[in-house]
Amino acid sequence: MAKLWELTKLIRSKNSGPFELTFDVIFKDRESYIKVRDAKLINAEWFARTYHLTPEVVSIIDYDAANAIKITIPRPTISGDINDTDVYGGQQHGPLVDVEVP
Amino acid sequence: MKRAMAREPHFIGADSGSTDPGPHYLGSGDTLFSDSAYKRDLRLMLLAGRAAKVPVIVGSACTSGSDPQLERLVGIAREIAREEKLNFRLAAIHSEQEKTYLKDKLRERRITPLANAPELNEDVIDRSAHIVGMAGIEPFVEALENGAEVIIAGRSSDTSIFSAMPVMHGINPATVWHAAKILECGAACVVQRTYPDCNFAIVRDDHFIVEPPNPDYRCDPDSVASHNLYENSTPYELVEPSGVLNTYSAKYEALSDRAVKVSGSTFEPSARYTIKLEGAELAGYQTIIIGSVRDPIILRQFDSWLSGLVKAAKDRIAAVFGREMEGKYDFNVRVFGKNATMGPLEPETAIGHEVGLLFQVTAETQALATSLMKSVGHIAVHYPVPEWTGLITSIAYPYSPAEIPRGPSYRFNMNHVVEPETPLEMFRIDYQRV
Predict the structure, then answer these.
(1) Is the pLDDT at B84 greater than 90, yes or no?
(2) HEC-encoded secondary structure of B71-128
(3) B236 and A61: CB-CB below 8 Å?
(4) Which of A10, B20, B309, B361 is the most exposed place for a label (fewest CB within 10 A)?
(5) pTM of whole model > 0.80?
(6) Cβ contacts (< 8 Å) between A70 and chain B: which residues?
């Protein structure tokens, strides 16, 4: 069974402005992308469970042009606010890296 | 840069800012980089632009594009001009906003929230250290039409910097805005970016071609299409003051092993013209302590040890400063090795053979934050566990003094758009002979 990172060129997280966090999963090839996309492996319920959120706030977009899946959520804390943990939002993607792809 | 200039571009653009490094820069007026760094890059652009007699357009001056930051970059441009004996007509576009103007707009209900926006009222506007509006292409076009050879602008949309001149010349806005989105981070859209560099695009009505001038770099259709994902909640839509770029039907084709042709996007003009606002206010002053724990007996009961420690620290503060101090400060402990990176989003909270601790107090003044932290530091370093009898020292502090004043901490306090009467009214333009 492959891990998600093995099928991708890049898994990253980043601010989409100071009020949102966005995650990009960019696949190495079309075949892997379509397999994961169509299996709906990355879905709002799963993402919400993993990140302790409610599914309603999770936006998931398939981006065929770049063989990529994008996930966007509200930031738990405004970027750089007194108790924020990650000003750039760049280290929030860890739980996606080793997800098993059947 | 030399290779790019050999292709005879019609202008040179650069985005000098971002909200990415956080609210400190908008709040304080400090800059993310040193003057030397801005000067090094701006010198390359001014020399190339004046030699080729093409405009140099820089937006979001010195991180946040507030007035002090704009003034700083204009000053640097003047220094470079003096040193290099350059002459040019400079336009400085101000993005900083008047509080009275914004309060009027708020009363007229011409300010509306975007996603996850905090509440905005007149108090928030009054509390803000700086508020900027994100300029569209119109102030740039105005400056170019008035003969500006160098434009230095306050906060601007990344894409407006690169869209203004081609749109002014009548090129299809859909192609222009898409090209601008791809160029706004320079070499970010190449296959493997190992260091920062410039990029180059040729924009025509029905397509644009992006090809990095650096021979170490190449673009392919995936790398260019992927850049639409960057710092954006959707790769398909890019909202600008005057309309929305839609890339659903875009086509990305390889023209060679390093050049990509892009076509097919559309641009839908908006019914109402909107300018995005960014504001920052002082949230308090912080003092921190960095420490770590290695004792396995403490680590085996880490959560209960730490919650006991936090309670003891707060009790000590109440004993020293009085109960009325409660609610006047914020106390937080970050646990490195557990969930310091992801906080409430972290699914894995098992710890290893040591953890790092970062204690943080936020209060109204620096002196108060440090005074409170001195009490926390002493309680924390000797906080006991039942297994050990006698006085223990339970945290390793790497510094003396343990407490570190961190200075003011700011907070982004708006995520809203305002509807001006005209695209220019929020952006004053100064023209200067340099």
Answers:
(1) yes
(2) HHHHHHHHHHHHHHCCCCEEEEECCECCHHHHHHHHHCCCEEECCCCCCCCHHHHHHE
(3) yes
(4) A10
(5) yes
(6) 229, 233-235
